[in-house]
Amino acid sequence: MGVMLQAFYWDCPLIEACENKWWAKINSRIPALQQVGFTALWLPPVSKAASCRSMGYDPYDYYDLGEIDQKGGKATWFGSREDLIDLIKTAHSHGMQVYADMVFNHNCGGDAEEENPIDSKTRWTKFRPGSGQFNRDWSYFHPSLYEQWDDALFGEMPDLCHRNPIVYTELIKYAQWLLEAIEFDGFRYDMVKGYGGWMVRAIQELRAIRDGKVFKPYGVGECWDNDRTIEDWLNEANAWSDNPAGAFDFPLRERLCSLCDSIGFSLRNLALEPGQLLHDRPEQAVTFVENHDISRDRPIIHDKLLAYAYILTHEGYPCVFWQDYYNWNLAQESTNNGIAALVRIHEKYAGGAARILYLDDDLYIMQRDGNGTQCGLVLVLNNRGNWNGTWVQTSWGNRHLCPEAWWSGNDTGNPEDRWTNESGWTQLWAPPRGYAVYVPQ
Known about the structure:
Shape: elongated
Number of helices: 12
Radius of gyration: 23 Å
Strand content: 15-25%
Distance between the termini: 23 Å
Strand order of the largest sheet: 1-2-5-8-11-12-13-14
Structural class: alpha/beta
CATH topology of the domain at 4-112 and 152-248: TIM Barrel
Number of strands: 22
């Protein structure tokens, strides 16, 4: 399914001294990212927010992508509209998709306060954006004539009422504009617990036209909750849909956090079993290790490459975090010991269903049998402080298995090549507190 890169983190333009130049920075990295094997970029919210120095999660003018002088400046914190268009064109020329971060649960930065006659409370709900598009007043927000409230608020920001036919129509129009005029390929839906899944379904069922061809947008929802809540949201958002959205696998991320940071974590907890989206709905699971929110709330501190080895060898649609790849130097592009090697392996070998060959507290061995052009792989995860391995029966008889990626926190040794016998049996090893990925030759 490819590998997505979350191409931002919180306050990245400020931290990396490229305010108004973040789009250009991403653009310059696209050729190298494509060569490694990345297939898609997830961008932060692209519209003008309540401040021009904002991450965009407080949207004000949906149609100002950095060309109107309002809210303190012309460009967004990430750059100009022209820079954004150039980025998308470069990505497309390198065969990569680009996803927009859709934030439409709430708005911010209203131009005037109004009294809502339904509850007689005053809020900043009068919006007259410089683009002249999607003007709003109190009737566009909760409480509304169409709905008193929906599932969740976001702080004190006015909460859009999607059951208002005008709001619904405007958001559909906006999504289609992003797909056709700006040429995004899909969406990451922010805070989906804040509104009905039917709103996402309506956008996912759009048929956009580009260069005379019809296409369906990709979609993934941020349902930051337990597996049951995510399952319920997917059922609602995808009911009768011919273009179902996926969801981020937060329950799996919790297990991966424990794998990396908890002493005594048993690898049995990584078993492919109910309770993880990766097990229950692998075709809709977007797996990840870190993102812009969770990295501030509960970041993984130790041995993060163990988690990346897991998501980049298993099923699902893996998402790599920019800060991990670049800032924390986990890419290691010219070696076999980092995220880049795992991305290459994912794209070249990670086909077929995952099945566990061996599992105990300290050793986890999983095989992908392969399909099509991807010939499969075996992942060996080792939780001990010394080299660890065992005999397993693979599905490949009389084959040479070559280690293509490996890492250990305290041992620089390389795993050795292995050969299976006619029945597929071989002995596979991984370095101390590390992993090894073997592929058939």
